[in-house]
Amino acid sequence: MTIHLSILVFFPALMGLVSAFSPRSLAPKILLVGTLIPLAYTIYMITDFDAGAGLQYVTDDAWITELGIRYKLGIDGLNLWLIALTCVVAFASAVWLSVRTPERAGLFCFHFALGQTAVLGAFVAQDLALFVLFFDLMLVPFYFIVGQWGSGDRAAAALKMVIYTLVGSLLMLAAAVATAVLSNPGGELSFVLTDLQANLLSESQQKWLFVAFALAFLIKMPAFPFQGWMPDAYRSMPLPALAFFSGVVSKVAAYGFLKLVLPLFPAATNDWNVILLILAVISILYGSIQAFTQTNARLILGYSSIAQLGFITLGIFAIDASGQGAQGALLQSINHGLVVAPLFFVVALLAERAEGSEDIRDYGGIAFRAPVLAALFLIVALATLAMPGSANFAGEFLILLGAFSSVQALAFLASIGVILASVYALRMYIRSMHNRVGPKVTSFEMTLRDGLVLVPLVLAIIAFALYPQLALDAGEATVRSTVEAVLR
Amino acid sequence: MSVTTLGWLVLLTPLAGSVLIGLTFKALPQRVHGALGTAAIGLAFVFAVLMFFGLQDRGEEERQLVSVAWDYANTVGVDAQLAILIDPLSVLMCLVVTGVSTLIHLYSFSYMGGDRGYTRFFAYLNFFVFSMLLLVLAANFFLLIVGWAFVGAASYMLISFWYRRTTATAAGIKAFVINVAGDVGLVLGAYFIFQGTNSLDFLTSFERVGEAFTENQTELVAGCILLLVGAFAKSAQVPFHTWLPDAMEGPTPVSSLIHAATMVTAGVYLIARLHPLFEHAPDAAMVGSIIGCATLLIAATIGLVVTDLKRVIAYSTMSQIGYMIMAVSSAVYAAGMFHLMTHAFFKALLFMAAGSVISAMGGNQDLDRMSGFRKVMPFTFACMVIGGLALSGIPPFSGFFSKDEILAYMIDRGGVYLVMAILGYVGALMTAFYTFRMIFRAFFGKMSPEAEELSHGHLYHAPEPTNPANGEVEDTEVGFPGPEHHIAERAGGMKIAMGGLAVLAIVGGFVQIPGVTSALHDFLHPTFHDSELFEEIHPSHTAEWIGLAIGALIGAAGIFAAWTIYGKGGNAASFQARLKPVHTFFVNKWFFDEAIDFLIVRPAAWMGRFANSTFERLFVNGALVGGSSGAIRALSAAVRSIQSGYLRYYAALLLIGFSGLGAYFLISA
């Protein structure tokens, strides 16, 4: 029994609360502290983590005894690195906010910190009701951030986002309650995941509960054809928040599949996985094709995320005998967050060099006076297209290998997405950095303070590219047992 | 130092050079970066030579060493490690790569002198050498693919080096995407092999391939053909070749190093490296032989008619790699690797000589405008002729021994290989013809204005340089060769590099003379010890010499034909007019670009437009959102009427949902 995870989860929100009442200049610094402590925690936990020891740092308290809901938190191979990703990206966003403080900074920081707490909570929750609570809580701060700080038609964007994800959330809520109730008829009601796993439902019950959970996660990702909310929300959300949202929040959905859906509904997973795989492959191809026709830089990244999340879904539902797909999916979740976040910061920097435009047709030739920015952008762009040598490639390699051994034809189709990724990533790079100088461009080098945001992220990408083994070791045992449970 | 330590040093020195240049790009003057880059590669060459001697000191059975740095992705049954394999084949490649690279760095030190992107150029070039060494030293499929993709990225960066030219960026992305398609082929091919052998490690999977697959088993053949796709894309073999001519947008040293001497031969290396797999899947190997043979012919025909100086050499590269691919796919390994080596020498030399002419032309590459450079650029002329004779297979130049050895071995293997060998001789005739067509046109005849100007001691400068491909005014800001760029053949670095390569192009063939020495064959033996065909295919010395003699005669015939048409008194125009339809077909490069555009690029673009304009708008936003947002509008109107904000509305929904459903299940429980 420890309090560590509670500190990890709630410290950001606490600091956010403090910053809400602080003067504008101070608020982002307080947020910075709020993101720094969890970051330090995760670094310690990574060094301390014992890959063979199952759930660690467990906090387990009674909460709502009548309903069997427990306040149970813990770290295992699945969430350790995702938590690290959350903390790294949140920290980068906090640095960015300290450099470029928004209007009403205190409130902005509060919402942002609440978002981080919600995501961390969802990752560490070991109780289904607790997970659902945090999962729904994620929506609130981002709704406000889009609604109040967004650009363009922010009200419509916020509403659309809320409606879409709310549908999923409510379905999941109902399904969660149903799971707990059905899994233990007559006995003690319990939402604790290990209890639910011990008393699996019948196949027919699993089947429809699976659908509810899957819908919630597919909308959150988003995956084809549930991406309707994405373009507006991405166009509107302020970039530092979007970096976190796109980099981390979508991963909660991927994590949800691995943590909840596969272990709780193994029989249904076997029934439905073909549908999920097909959706995954369509997401990959559709997202990629969209990404290379869009001209709005944010949407290029948005649709590329659909494609990347498609790869992750493909890996999770490949369900191959050795768990290569799922292992790759877990690695790729971390990788994708780590590359997409800096890309959004790069978009912000590009916009500053093109009179605020985020349309790549207005860009061009920016590299000339900004060689450092160009170099950093190139590294991130190559990682995004899963260039071999990046950790993203290791992830994609495992995902496609898993798919190859279980559903060979889909692996071939999905690999077209790898080629398309090179088109959209390089297209964006060339259109902004190279070619003739664009109509609105006045290029200049990035400042040292911008470097504080981008350089650590790029270094993290490089470090991870050199030694992905670290994250793979942590997850292997859990991933294997998860997949084996489905195969049984 | 142990051999493996040396192997790691060979690999890491260029990387260190690249990183150092990159990090100090503002702190040090340009020339220092050039010197640093050149020194790093020179040092790598020294290490490679030491590695060679270290390896030769060991017993024949102990010349395959693997050294593991750390586990890379060693998980769930996958055994990807950061490991290098040192054996005669990889050492030979290291020697060729670092040796030629050192000379080309030296050349670039002068050639790129006036370029604003000088520092960037050396950082990229060093990174390229590192990538290429990673490719050849990799001990498993995973790391091979990493090196494979890295050279692709380096090639992309250097093709688009003058990144304000839209033709250069377009050529860059084309090369990159085609190479990624090749990477995917490699990955999928590796999956097939992994599925059978359960290992990504080369030596382990070679050991297991016999048990894991029956000969010509479908999975193995499919895997090997996919691996070949990777080889074809990198080595510009039909139909994945269209990027190579466009890649000539890069600076000439890049064409010389990457698109002639080293990177494009990676496919040849790959097939030789994976020979145990291909020998177990003869059907797949046959595909390699046929494509290699087709490429050598198709590229040669295009080479006959191209009017861009660098593109002539580019098509010639394609064609020569066709010989090598054909050779190694037909289990003629030693000769194939031999030709890879000599080709690196003389083709790099040809490009350097071309670069010298191009700089005298003020950046213009059009053969139609060049003539009479023989007297004003004697050194370049000599180099070009040496390179040209080696390429045409005239004794005693290096290409004579290597190319004709391939064909002699192919004849010895007989059957369909005999047919391919005969086609190879047809290719050789065209090779000699187009090579000397290029030389006669550029160096003989009446002096062009540019040559005239050079004879007065100064260089021609275009008043306002424009891109010949699209008429765009050149942007000299990022370093497209400006007025200060041109140095023709005067600079010392260039002369040393060209001289060195010229010597190698002359004597490089002497390592393997039928009946006298078979040094290369013997050296490579430990790599191919498991191959029966390696020893089995062995023509008699007499047969080899007959082959060599035929080759020499054919080369001479080609040169003579070029002289009668393009030399003194020749009438090229009437010759061209007589063969008009064929000429048009060749000038349009067999319409490969058009076919790819029609079959792949346009449908993809169309799908993108459809997805965006129709599907997304009508289906996703219309049907899915339209329905729900209509409902929302009604709902929110209702909510507004009770003066509620969205948050309350959300909270209320959440609450109602939670309690309603919760209540239902609790009651029913």
UniProtKB/TrEMBL annotation, chain A:
It comes from Solirubrobacter deserti. It comes from the Bacteria. Pfam families: Proton_antipo_M. Keywords: Membrane, Transmembrane, Transmembrane helix. This is NADH-quinone oxidoreductase subunit M. The chain crosses the membrane at residues 30-47, 78-99, 119-146, 158-182, 208-229, 241-262, 274-293, 300-319, 331-351, 372-391, 397-426, 447-467. Residues 125-418 form the NADH:quinone oxidoreductase/Mrp antiporter transmembrane domain. It is a multi-pass membrane protein. NCBIfam families: NDH_I_M.
Automatic annotation (TrEMBL), chain B:
It is a multi-pass membrane protein. Residues 138-424 form the NADH:quinone oxidoreductase/Mrp antiporter transmembrane domain. Keywords: Membrane, Transmembrane, Transmembrane helix. Pfam families: Proton_antipo_M (PF00361), Proton_antipo_N (PF00662). Residues 77-122 form the NADH-Ubiquinone oxidoreductase (complex I) chain 5 N-terminal domain. The chain crosses the membrane at residues 6-28, 35-55, 89-109, 121-139, 145-163, 175-194, 284-309, 321-338, 344-364, 376-394, 414-436, 496-516, 545-566, 649-667. The keyword Cytoplasm does not apply. It is found in: Endomembrane system; Membrane. NCBIfam families: NDH_I_L, PRK06590.1. This is NADH-quinone oxidoreductase subunit L. It comes from Solirubrobacter deserti.
